[in-house]
Design a protein that fits this description.
With 623 residues, the protein is an alpha+beta fold. A five-stranded mixed beta sheet has the order 8-9-10-12-11, covered by helices on one side. A four-stranded antiparallel beta sheet has the order 1-4-5-6. A three-stranded antiparallel beta sheet has the order 2-3-7. A hairpin with an 8-residue loop joins strand 4 and strand 5. Helix 12 runs antiparallel to helix 13 and helix 21 packs across helix 22. The chain starts with 18 loop residues before the first helix and ends in an 8-residue tail after the last helix. The N terminus is likely disordered.
């Protein structure tokens, strides 16, 4: 983890954000000054949370085994000698995750469900922070620490794995004794034989498992990243501290090191602004289990600025673009802790091309900013690649360029942006508008347009519901042969389909088609599941191989058997666009939820393409 400057203090104060920061951050630049302001706000925020935890813990658990005052006293002693160490502990992403969890429990009247640790043990992470501060600064002291399972955490440093197995009952408590400088090793007293911590806490020895620091950049001044597999609050997605996962193996660590260095080399060579953002923003990477290509897992959290959870992707480009994406999320989370960019009203749920579920305005803002970085990465990278990799990069640029532009237009039309939010979003939109002048080769460009139409159509079928009365009137007009031009418009409203988060599998198949076309059929078979039949996968392959008429027939067959197959409605629209009635294709891609609703009103078996063609000639297709 990068060390704050030795003069860095942890005092509270006023924070100001100059307009130039908005300009720079919107353009993807994190200047040294902007980074200092971002981290100063995070330190103040987390210091306030530590104070709140301490005050509440005194009242809620006055007789707890680990009184918070003991930890705060030791932290204050460290701060007098090494304020930079305390600043670094406050900036540690695990501190933010833990503080939010602890405050939620301290403010809740409900008893947590087992196996949550007792409240005093959760609050005891404060003691772990103080112990890490004493070890890093060489401050003499003694402090008691909670044991989670068989692990004792030392945030930013690592953990001790105690011998034996975790026993049922309340968590154990151990004591750390840090001697005066030169008086021997620090000792962990466990009630049996004391465990001596190694003098060099960067190296594994005995029960000590250090946090791994990996130099990712060719520039020695760029701080390393912590590959965090030790901190119990590293995974903000879980309700409980992460104490059971084994540490990374040597080969796993080497894989991360090699790919991070390769990603860092290409970022510094071809994407210097993105590399600068990464160097000044990300501190911690939390490894996730390996995921298939084109499905790299990654996540960020507003109270874990500086951290990203991610699986190790197969190529340096994939890792580099994921780091850019998550670094931007961290930057925006930090900026939102300084300034309100939108009002707090979140009832509106909107379409976001990168998600399968409806998103609030805040989600659109986050996604637009993160994927602007993704689009800009592929804009540059596509010219450095050759063959299928270049075709795929052109496709990614074309998709995210258009997705970001569409989303920014939605944001700028919203009255809920604040003055600062409108300035930031406008600067971002001005930057993104320059990408429209760049050309994309015909094949990846056509696939990108199909991808964007597909994503929206699938989303609409999942999450929009046409007005029932209007749909019934439209269905009656269809049955009676009424003039379609006289039919009034039918509006649709958002009704989220729970459980739909990731985009449709056809998105992955388009990428496979460009990167490794021989693997398309195999990957389509792998995408089959209880909700996605083999017949639908075969139709997808026909569509992507360019057999539009055969694909349309295959999608019709799927819908005749399973009209609830959401993806097939959009697939049929795409197939008809390339080889069928244009009116039917337009209706299926623009109002697929209404075509589906009309089809459900049919008195008997009907051709969904015929229903769509009729709808395509009505004003009822609007809305």
């Amino acid at each position: 983890m990068t060390e704050p400057h030795a003069r860095t203090r942890t005092v509270l104060g006023r924070h100001r954000t100059p307009a130039t920061d908005l300009d720079d951050l919107a353009a993807g630049r994190v200047t040294p000054g902007a980074a200092r302001r971002l981290w100063a706000v995070e330190r103040s925020r987390r210091l306030l949370m530590l104070r709140a935890v301490t005050d509440l813990a005194r009242r809620r658990a006055p007789a707890a085994p680990l009184p918070p005052d003991a930890a705060m006293d030791l932290l204050l002693r460290v701060d007098r000698v090494r304020p930079d160490v305390v600043a670094d502990l406050l900036e540690h992403p695990g501190t933010g995750v833990w503080a939010v969890r602890a405050l939620e429990r301290l403010n809740s009247a409900e008893r947590p469900r087992a196996p949550a640790p007792p409240l005093w043990a959760e609050v005891g992470y404060l003691h772990c922070l103080a112990a890490a501060g004493a070890l890093r600064s060489g401050i003499e002291g003694t402090i008691r620490l909670p044991v989670h399972g068989t692990l004792v955490a030392f945030p930013t440093l690592g953990r001790v794995r105690l011998p034996g197995t975790a026993l049922p009952g309340p968590p154990a408590v151990v004591t750390l004794r840090v001697p005066a400088a030169g008086a021997g090793p620090a000792l962990l007293l466990t009630g049996d034989l004391p465990l001596a911590l190694p003098a060099d806490l960067r190296r594994a020895r005995g029960p000590w498992e250090p946090s791994r620091r990996i130099a990712w950049s060719p520039r020695p001044q760029d701080p390393p990243l912590i590959l965090e597999d030790a901190d119990p609050y590293r995974d903000f997605r879980t309700a409980l501290p992460s104490v059971t996962a084994p540490p990374l193996t040597g080969p796993e660590t080497r894989d991360w090191h090699l790919l991070l260095r390769a990603a860092g080399d290409l970022l510094r060579e071809r994407h210097p602004e993105a590399a600068g953002m990464l160097a000044r923003t990300l501190r911690v990477l939390v490894p996730l289990p390996t995921a298939p290509r084109f499905r790299t897992a990654s996540a960020s959290y507003e109270e874990a600025v500086g951290s990203a959870l991610l699986s190790l992707p197969p190529t340096p480009q994939d890792l580099a673009v994921t780091l850019v994406h998550e670094a931007r999320h961290s930057v925006l989370n930090g900026l939102l802790h300084q300034l309100a960019l939108h009002s707090g009203e979140e009832e509106l749920l909107l379409y976001a091309p990168w998600r399968g579920d409806p998103r609030p305005l805040s989600g659109l803002l986050h996604g637009a900013y993160a994927f602007a970085g993704v689009a800009d990465f592929w804009r540059v990278e596509r010219h450095a690649l050759r063959g299928p990799a270049a075709q795929l990069a052109h496709f990614e640029f074309a998709v995210w360029r258009a997705a970001v532009a569409e989303t920014l237009a939605t944001l700028l039309a919203s009255p809920r942006l604040t003055t600062a939010g409108r300035l930031f979003t406008g600067r971002l939109a001005a930057r993104a508008a320059t990408w429209d002048r760049e050309t994309v080769p015909a094949r990846p460009g056509a696939l990108a347009r199909a991808e964007l139409a597909d994503l929206r159509a699938v989303w609409r079928v999942h999450h929009l519901r046409p007005d029932p009365a209007g749909t019934a009137a439209l269905a009656e007009a269809l049955r009676s042969g009424a003039d379609p031009r006289a039919v009034p418009a039918v509006r649709s409203v958002v009704s989220p389909d729970p459980g739909v988060v990731v985009p449709d599998p056809r998105s992955e198949l388009r990428r496979v088609l460009l990167a490794d076309p021989d693997a398309l059929e195999r990957q389509a078979r792998l995408a089959t599941s209880a909700t996605r039949s083999a017949a639908l996968a075969e139709a997808d392959v026909l569509l992507l191989r360019g057999a539009a008429r055969e694909a349309a027939a295959a999608y019709r067959a799927v819908l005749a058997d399973r009209p609830e197959a959401v993806s097939a409605w959009a697939g049929l629209g795409l197939a008809l666009r390339d080889g069928g009635p244009r009116a039917a294709a337009d209706a299926l891609l623009r109002r697929p939820e209404l075509v589906r609703a009309l089809h459900a009103h049919a008195p008997g078996p009907t051709d969904p393409a015929a229903t769509a063609a009729w709808l395509g000639g009505t004003t009822g297709g609007a809305g």
